[in-house]
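call fold(seq) -> tokens
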Amino acid sequence: MQLYAPTSTTATKKRTRAPKLAKLDGARIGILENGKLNAEEMLNEVAQLFVQRHGCTIVKLASKKNASAPAPANTLTQVAPEVDFLITGLGD
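ret:
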């Protein structure tokens, strides 16, 4: 019997989280839907809660074709300057 270690030898990438928003009031929301059934509808419902509770506005809807893959960098690059935060999730 031969055993294999399930670890990777590739270098790890240094990643940091986006800074916390100072406030939600009046923030601009982007929505990233993943192409799954009901994703757009579900994410719009979540965004509407921010609109009602914090006076946010929904300014951008973006899509990605593969639910299991990260969003393409160019999609995020295009959306980022127009929004203060992005909502994403599964729609099934």
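Residues 39-54 form the longest helix (16 residues).
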